[in-house]
Design brief:
heterodimer; A: about 350 residues; Metallo-beta-lactamase, Chain A; Rossmann fold; seven-stranded mixed beta sheet; six-stranded mixed beta sheet; 8 helices; 19 strands; globular; B: about 550 residues; alpha+beta; DNA ligase i, domain 1; D-amino Acid Aminotransferase, Chain A, domain 1; OB fold (Dihydrolipoamide Acetyltransferase, E2P); 3 domains
Chain lengths: ~350, ~550
């Protein structure tokens, strides 16, 4: 019986962990299911949260274009404005900014006198490419915990952006290309938007990044001008900045750049061992997830009496919260994978 | 300090050796003489006397971090480096405008930090130290906080080799590398004077300075590739500690390759060295035993491990110096002469009745590569590591220059062990499980016999790490016991009895040769098999 409820959840819970994903029985829908279901409510379009094959998808209007890039053309999608409530079964559901990537949303579910909020992935740092996280008062807050270790504290984003620019310019002065790896959805656009306040130069982008950059531009996000880095030998990449997904590292695609330096933008780059082990020349600390202080701040601001953690350093955060007198538990989900 | 922090950052954030050399040259060219000298001292891995131990820093971190102790420990285990953990948990975040020049005035030089802030801590009380260090933690920006912690504990590894530092110095001082290499040998104090002496190397010559050791490269192919047998001197590769005897008049010293003076450890060798003509420097191997019989390396380790040299110890494990090269003769540097000439003079000098603890490494007379290969097979029975092949016409080089000296080692011993425990690595390998313990079978149970840290590829390490996390049986602190499933072929250089190990044996330099994914755990080796090696080979006496 316990298995059906999932560890960390009580039998009367509004949301349960099933083998398909987080399930709300009262509303008969799933949130970010990892297997096909009839009705899916989606927090954001990263691959571990948005998967093809479900009957219908409900997501935030701001993320519609991005989600279209990631789903088959015949997928049935309905989009909601942030804060716009809809009735699903016995529940009232609304989506609210999560500050993670363009169109990312927290899912607020009201049922009777209970309010539950599922955060998806989120951050509290300023990001010119998406609406800022809004803390929602709730009874139970289901949070990510990707970087739930006190070592993870993010430096100021503009400071990191200036570091990236200085690195690019230093490489340029030596006639080298700067290949910067960043996740194709969210991080790459954030880098382009942050750099836009420091320079007006053109940036080359990998094909996997290009479609998403177009989607962001169509939503009115201001970013540096870009050119495709798709045709081998067609451009002179000396001194250029190139944005590519991490999967491009070490691939034959890299050959076109000749002599180059590599960098990686991620929260993991906060730790020197990780910077060195990944084999990039430079690591830049830039994350779309909440750092340790932001997680704690957010838990306080929601006023939740119970915190449930979906992925990341869940055990560590759980133990810490319990010692602080907060009711907390870890859920077993299949999220995690980017950043 | 900020400039040194930038240098550290530049070295730490590139994998290009050229970029590293350029970053160091640029620093040396613009730093004050004493800062430059200190930077050299730190970069080549010299350690000043530690002013505070890691245990104290760890304790103060627990108090300063305002976090539960378990959480600090868990963060440390994940980060893998104490200096970094402190900076991550306590240092203020870098303010956005930290590069601004207005705080330049507050920036102390590297020399000031070391000589006026860090070194005086040695004489202070724990309470004073704690107060000062905790204040630095809270005030310094992240990068400097990390560096000061590294300097406090006396170890800073930044991925530059000594030879890279030498290259950078040679480039910026416009001196030959061999001169720089020589000046960095032996004992020296980081100071403006030292820096000036590097610029005019003759002024920096000291009677106590050894020559940089010439190192052999491993022979990877068949020896026939080296051409005619007669071009090469062949001798045993002695299993001891590389050493240099300096006999310069009143000054006699024995240096090890680790650049330590080990004169005091080997009085019998020094008694013999006193009979050398003044102005002589010998290169050779310090071993345990005598001209007739060299003892296994484990014996030499016992001898070095003892603080007190009792008469019984000196008799049981005598020290002996096997000379194989002559670097200085009659006060003149002979290194540029061909080996043939150096060796001829060495043979006129040794052996000598007045020097019973110094012998001559014999030249092997086998006339063909084939005969030599056969001789190499007897190496283990002689307690040597294999053969050395040296070009008769070559001068004595510096460092590991390839081509003139080759080591042709015997193949290592191997056995198949089962992975039992794993612990996270440190530094570059922190938060990956990379420190492994392996066991072999005895009466149906697995007994731990060896720890190994190296030998797997990065891809294999990641694969094994993921497996370990999923197949943990128990956690003991940061150590995990795992399901005994995976078999690895381990290579090692020697075996000795040990009362300190549960298995009763100690292996020398065990490392992973390969992952035997084809072998089930039941087919791993037994302790009996290892003990048979002990009986039939060295170390058993």
């Amino acid at each position: 019986m316990l298995d059906a409820v999932g560890p960390g959840l009580r039998r009367d819970a509004l949301i349960r962990v099933t083998d398909r994903g987080l399930y709300c029985a009262a509303g008969d829908f799933y949130i970010d299911p990892w297997l096909p279901v009839e009705r899916a409510v989606i927090t954001h379009a990263h691959g571990d949260h948005l998967r093809a094959g479900s009957g219908s998808y409900t997501l935030a209007q701001a993320g519609l274009r991005v989600a279209r890039c990631r789903l088959p053309p015949d997928a049935s999608i309905s989009a909601l404005a942030y804060g716009e409530p809809i009735i699903m079964g016995e529940t009232q559901v609304s989506l609210h900014p999560a500050g993670h990537v363009l169109g990312s949303a927290q899912v607020r579910i009201a049922h009777g006198d209970q309010v539950w909020v599922v955060s998806g992935d989120y951050k509290r740092d300023a990001d010119p490419t998406c609406a800022a996280f809004v803390p929602l008062p709730c009874d139970v807050f289901i949070s990510e915990a990707t970087f739930a270790l006190p070592a993870y504290r993010w430096p100021d984003t503009q400071h990191t952006a200036r570091e990236i620019l200085a690195w690019w310019h230093a490489n340029r002065s030596q006639g080298l290309a700067s290949v910067l790896f960043a996740y194709a959805l969210g991080k790459a656009q954030r880098v382009l938007a942050e750099l836009a306040s420091l320079t007006a130069d053109c940036v080359y982008i990998h094909g996997a990044v290009a479609g998403l950059v177009d989607a962001y531009r169509a939503e009115g996000i201001r970013m540096l001008p870009t050119l495709p880095a798709t045709v081998a030998g067609a451009a002179d990449y000396r001194g250029a900045l190139v944005l590519a997904p991490p999967s491009a590292a070490g691939s034959p695609w890299m050959r076109r750049f000749g002599d180059h330096r590599t960098g990686f933008c991620s929260g993991w780059m906060r730790i020197r061992g990780d910077r060195r082990r990944r084999g990039y020349d430079r690591g830049f600390v830039l994350s779309d997830h909440a750092d340790w202080p932001s997680l704690l701040q957010t838990f306080r601001e929601t006023g939740a009496r119970r915190i449930l953690l979906t992925h990341g350093h869940t055990d560590t955060m759980c133990r810490y919260l319990r010692e602080q007198g907060v009711d907390a538990a870890a859920l077993r989900t299949e999220y995690g994978g980017e950043d | 300090m900020r400039r040194f922090a930038s240098l550290f950052d530049a070295l730490d954030t590139t994998t290009s050796t050229l970029a590293k050399v350029e970053a160091m040259s640029a620093y040396f060219a613009t730093a004050s003489p004493s800062d430059a000298a200190w930077a050299v001292y730190i970069l080549i891995g010299r350690r000043a006397k530690r002013s505070v131990g890691p245990a104290a820093l760890r304790q103060w971190l627990l108090e300063e971090a305002q976090l539960p102790a378990w959480l600090v420990e868990e963060t440390y285990a994940s980060v893998g480096d104490l200096a970094e953990t402190i900076a991550l948990l306590v240092a203020p975040e870098t303010p956005a405008d930290s590069d601004a020049a207005d705080s330049d005035a507050a920036d102390l030089s590297l020399t000031t930090w070391l000589t006026q802030r860090i070194q005086p801590l040695i004489r202070e009380s724990d309470e004073q130290r704690r107060g000062k260090i905790a204040a630095w933690w809270h005030q310094l920006p992240y990068a400097q906080c990390f560096l000061v912690n590294k300097l406090l504990t006396g170890s800073l590894r930044v991925g530059v080799s000594r030879s890279l530092v030498t290259r950078a110095l040679a480039a910026c001082l416009d001196q030959p590398r061999i001169q720089i290499e020589r000046a960095l040998m032996g004992a020296w104090e980081p100071s403006a004077d030292f820096w000036h002496s590097l610029r005019s190397p003759d002024a920096g010559f000291e009677i106590s300075q050894p020559y940089p050791f010439f190192l052999a490269s491993p022979l990877e192919g068949p020896p026939e590739a080296l051409g005619e047998r007669s071009r090469w001197l062949a001798e045993w590769k002695w299993d001891g500690i590389r050493g240099q005897i300096l006999a310069r008049g009143a000054h006699c010293a024995l240096w090890s390759r680790g650049e330590e003076i080990i004169t005091e450890r080997f009085p019998e060798i020094m008694d013999s060295a006193a009979a050398l003509p003044p102005g002589t420097v010998l290169d050779g191997e310090v071993v345990a035993g005598s001209a007739e019989r060299v003892l296994p390396f484990a014996k030499l380790q016992q001898r070095i491990g003892r603080k007190k040299l009792t008469a019984a110890l000196l008799a049981a494990i005598p020290g002996y110096f096997i000379a194989y090269d002559l670097l200085e003769w009659e006060g003149e540097d002979w290194r540029s002469r061909p080996l043939q000439e150096r060796r001829a003079q060495l043979e006129r000098l040794l052996p000598a009745a007045a020097m019973p603890a110094i012998g001559l490494s014999p030249v092997l007379s086998e006339a063909t590569w084939e005969e030599l290969a056969a001789a190499r097979l007897q190496a283990r029975a002689r307690s040597v590591e294999g053969l050395m092949l040296k070009d008769w016409q070559a001068p004595y080089g510096t460092g590991r220059q390839r081509g003139a000296w080759w080591k042709w080692k015997i193949d290592p011993y191997v056995f198949d062990g089962v992975l039992l425990y794993a612990a996270p690595g440190h530094g570059r390998r922190s938060n990956l499980y990379t420190d492994y313990t392996f066991g072999v079978w005895r009466n149906g149970a697995l007994v731990p016999v060896a720890k190994a840290y190296s030998g797997l590829t990065d891809a294999e390490i990641r694969r094994l790490d993921a497996w370990i996390r999923k197949n943990t049986r128990e956690k003991f602190g940061t150590v995990r016991s795992v399901e005994p499933v995976h078999v690895f072929e381990l290579a090692y250089e020697g075996i000795a009895k040990s009362s300190r190990h549960k298995s009763g044996i100690a292996l020398r330099f065990p490392r992973i040769a390969r992952w035997r994914t084809d072998k089930p755990a039941g087919e791993a080796d037994t302790l009996d098999a290892l003990q048979r090696v002990l009986l039939t080979h060295d170390g058993g006496s």
